[in-house]
């Protein structure tokens, strides 16, 4: 006879089997890292072609293995500061401007964005105008500041206010 107790035990067992299947998906390792910038690549935020512009570029490696490319570090932060972006992110990358040329940063110069140092309020232009110059070490960032001025920030210090200040600086320069 099929009793209520047997039904509850059966239902619990089926639920556990279902949860076990879900757990294995979370453990799947998805390889994800920066990739080369191609001539037709467009920025995931503004849609501009990426390769045509100077300054540091950025990429976001998503948990599902996709890579989003950005024409500037500031556009990457625009994307990262959206609440729905954080759960998707596996790792973000930026150009280390201490080891590559400003006018055409190399594909081999990417570093993890969360360990980089950023210089804002500096005069060098990126794809969207004023940008955050990214560096692999604090010493490289300070050497850049000695030549170009600016203000030093860490990854965690870049917020909406910093991005708004960049936008205001761009408006002032174009007027």
UniProtKB/TrEMBL annotation:
Coiled coil: which residue ranges?
Answer: none
Read off the InterPro entries from this record.
N2O_reductase_NosL
**A Pfam family this chain is assigned to:** NosL
Transmembrane regions listed in the UniProt entry: none
Q: Matching SUPFAM superfamilies, A to Z?
A: NosL/MerB-like (SSF160387)
The highest taxon in the source lineage is Bacteria
In Swiss-Prot or TrEMBL terms, this protein is called Nitrous oxide reductase accessory protein NosL
Instruction: Please tell me the species this chain comes from.
Output: Billgrantia kenyensis
């Amino acid at each position: 006879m099929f009793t209520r107790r047997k039904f509850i035990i059966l239902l619990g067992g089926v639920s556990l089997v279902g949860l076990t299947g879900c757990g294995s998906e979370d453990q799947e390792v998805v390889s994800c890292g920066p990739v080369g910038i191609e001539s037709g690549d467009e920025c995931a935020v503004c849609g501009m072609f990426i390769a045509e512009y100077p300054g540091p570029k950025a990429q976001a490696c998503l948990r599902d293995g996709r890579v989003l490319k950005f024409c500037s570090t500031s556009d990457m932060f625009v994307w990262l500061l959206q609440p729905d972006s954080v759960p998707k992110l596996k790792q973000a990358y930026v150009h280390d401007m201490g080891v590559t040329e400003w006018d055409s940063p190399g594909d081999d110069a990417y570093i993890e964005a969360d360990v980089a140092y950023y210089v804002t309020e500096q005069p060098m232009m990126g794809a969207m105008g004023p940008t955050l110059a990214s560096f692999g070490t604090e010493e490289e960032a300070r050497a850049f500041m000695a030549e170009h001025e600016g203000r030093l920030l860490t990854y965690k210090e870049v917020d909406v206010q910093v991005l708004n200040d960049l936008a205001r600086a761009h408006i002032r320069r174009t007027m």
